[in-house]
Structures are given as C-alpha cells and as structure tokens.
User: Fold this.
Amino acid sequence: MTDAELEHSDPADENDMLTLVTEVGTALNRSSYPVPRIAQVIRGICAAHRSDIVAQVFANYLIVLDKDANQVQIANTGSMYRFDQIADTEAVVHRVRRRQTSVRQAITDLRSIAESRPSMGLLIRGVGYALMALGFAFCFQMSLAATIAAVVVSVPLAAIVLWASTRSALAPLMPVLLTFLSALAITLWAVHGGLEDPVRLAVIPVVTLIPGAALATALIEISAGDMIAGTARLAYSLVVLLSMAFGLALAIDVVGISTADLQDVTSTHAPSWVLGLAAPVFGVGAMLYFCMPTRLWLWVLGITVGTFWLNQLLGKVMLSAFAGGVAVGMALLVAWAINAHVRSRPSVLAMFLPAFWLMVPGSMGFVAVSGVVTSDKDLGSLGTNAALSLLSMATSMMIASVLAPMVTRRIPMSSLLSRRLLRLRRRRPHGRSAG
Assistant:
C-alpha cells in the first residue's frame, strides 16, 4: 500500500501512534532486544510515520511521551516471548517501518501476538526441554551415567517450569526452587550411584533458567551508554545466579556430600564424537521448547551447528573465551544477512538465539558462583573465564551491529546490469561504433 492509501484507509491520530510505539517497545523488550536496539527501531518507526513521539526504554518497562499532545504511556514488559512470538513481532515491526501496514492494524497484530497460545503442545515442549539438557550434557562430554541422570532429572523439572509459566506469581521462585530440586536429586544420585562432577551436572537440567543471555545483554547496554537499563539487568542477573547457587549449596548441605566430591572433572568421560551431536540436539530441543516456526528450522540448525563448530576450530588457535565471542559475532552477522537477502525474511533473533544460548557461558558463571558458595577453589576459578567470555561475546555482538549495514545492504539488479554494461563499453576497441 502507498502512503496515500494507508492514510486514507487508516486515519491514525497521535494517540494511535503513541499506542503503537508503546506496543512495539514492549514486544521488542519481551523479544530479548537490547535497549539501544529497541530505541533505534522506535526512532525509525517515528521517522517513517513523521511523528515526534519519544520513548525512554528500560530493562523491564518503557515510558512513551507525546509532547505536542501532552500525553504519556508507561508500560511494564512481561515474560520473554517464545520463538514464534519473536518471529511474528519482527515481521510486524518490519511492515510498520516500511509503512506496509496501517497503524491500527499493527497495534491489533502486536496485541494478538502477546496473547497467542503456544504452537507446540505441553508434551512436545517437555521433550524439547529434555533434549536441551541432553545437548548440554554432550557439550560437557559427560559420562553415560551422568548424561542419563541429567535427562531423567530434567523431565519433571520441565513439567514444573511449564506449569509455573502460566502462573506469573510463581515465576520468581522457579530458579532457586528448581535448582534446589535438581541439585538434591543429582547429589543423592551421586552419593548412592557414584556420579562424578555433581555441581556441573546439577546445572544441566536448569540451564534454561540461567540468565547468561541477560548478562551479555546487560554488558552490551552498559557499553552502549544505557547505564540504567544495563545496570538494572546486570543486578537482576547476578541476583538470580546467586539465588541458584544458594539452592545448590543448600541441597549439598542437606545431602551432606563432601567437598572432595565437588571437584571439576569435566573431562573425557565421553568420546569426542559426542560433540558432533551437541549442537543439533540442543538446537532441536530449543526449537521445540520455545515453539520455533517450522519455516525457520533449517536456518536455525545451520546457524547453531555452524557457530558451535566455528567455536571449536577457533579454540585451537586462540583462547576459548575469545573464540566464543568471534563465533557469536559471526552468527549474528549471518542471521542479519539471511534476514536481509532471503525473500521470506526469517527472524534474526529466532535464528540467532539458540546458537547464542548454546555458546553463552552462563553455566560457567553459575558453576563458578557455586564453587565460591561451597568453598571449592577449582570451581570458583571458572569465574574468570566466564567473565572474559561474556565480555568477549558482548563486544563481538556490538561490532556485529556496527557491521550489519554492510551485510544487509541490497544492491538493485538494475545497478548490477548498469555496471556490467559499463564494463563492456570500456572493453570495446576505440573508433568502432556500437552498430
């Protein structure tokens, strides 16, 4: 639709634009966008619709102001969106920025996305949760017994997580409660069944609750100058990590397992070929649990597997923390390029997040904090590598955002043809006519 057609079919007033900006900011915040990126998108929408509305975005709420109409809207953001909601949100925002949909229709679409039900059933999502735990067990090269324990413990935890997701009042309790239950089951299994490395094993069933992505996003926001949003998100992430470490330490104290049994023995229990299964198994699990649209499955698997193996290769020539950062930055650039040049415009975040979650060292941070709480020096020393990895990934993602215009710029076919004709003309011998 042209601008004139949109204005004729939808005579939106400034109040509609105020509501639209609020809905867009809320949806992008729930889609895990960093605050600087949200602000950039909102400015683009306001410029496209010739609106003077301004918005101040924070970690979990936003304030939208229309100075001319003397109106303001304040909105609190909710829980994180599923992948199907993220993909639909990006599609609506793209149409709004290009004025391919009316303001009122965009508001309706965004509200429908927020209220949409999961596209996957509870059983399928539970299987996805267990597969994510299995993928991480493969990443850590756990022994067969430890891998089985991780998957078995993750099944009832998945049921609790899915049940609690419909009850917002219980959500804040889930990290510490489920970590306690997971650690209790694992340490009891370790005492009576001889499992090794119970601390690292206990984190696998609750890995989706670890705020590793929030930690990286907080560092991006702080580096970009959004001190309020970044500091608030960082404080929240650290509190969640500490509460989970408290739950683990409490379970260890209840069981009475000795400090000698808490050593970091991640190792060579499983053969190296299990690493080849880690990325695809985790990717499929994430797509099922977070309800990834089927049209994105191949893209997601390709980026997840590619990022994992790029990290493995780079780890042979540089520190693992730097290798993870480079791999994550490349994954984000590839996701942007696919979004820009594929006609169906696959969602950038939906393609990128599974690879990011597989790589993000949130589990290392949790294990390190747990080591401090349990007075285990070997585990606590992992904190330095975890912090370095987070900084590396945050920096690489910021660099990728700067380089994004280079990989997303479209070159019209007419321009390519003109350049080709110009080259042909320059190659013709002098003095010979075109006829």
Remarks:
- The chain has two domains: 3-115, 122-408.
- The radius of gyration is 24 Å.
- The longest strand covers residues 61-66.
